[in-house]
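INTERNAL AUDIT FORM
Audit reference: QA-55
Scope: verify that the stored structure record matches its stored sequence.
Auditor: D.O.
Record contents follow.
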Amino acid sequence: MKAKFLFFLVVLCGLISFRSDAQILKPVKWTFSYMPSRHYSANEEQQGLVVLTADIQAGWHIYAQGPDNGDGPIPTSFKFEKSDLFSLSGGVIPKSKAKVSFDPTFKKNIGVHEGRVIFEQKVILHKGAKLIKGSLEFMVCNDKQCLPPKDLDFEIKLN
């Protein structure tokens, strides 16, 4: 009886270990930075770029920006906290074109990014700006599975 119990316990621990390994998949690493431009306005406002970089493991992809009509995957989206110390100029722009193809699961053409994708947001910093905060949402998939959509907060210190 003890042998059966021990065997059951070992199998159970193995399953728990395997299950916890499956939950730590992190195929996308995000980094955030600010690149000042050399141009200043007459009132000492500085223009620059917030740079949001996704490094995506081989075999995985994130979905391109776009409307979420509820009939497809969650597109990558960005939000910036409102502040009197900076202004956004335009929207977040990917520096590489998304690869668009027909997705049989969703029965429509869908854009994805693979490898490394850099997104840029033009900003105008007002006097006293020291920090830009925001969040992003993205969904990552490979040819076998999709991970749940993820919300990620970011904070960029301005020097």
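Auditor finding: record pair retrieved intact. The longest strand covers residues 28-40.
Action required: none
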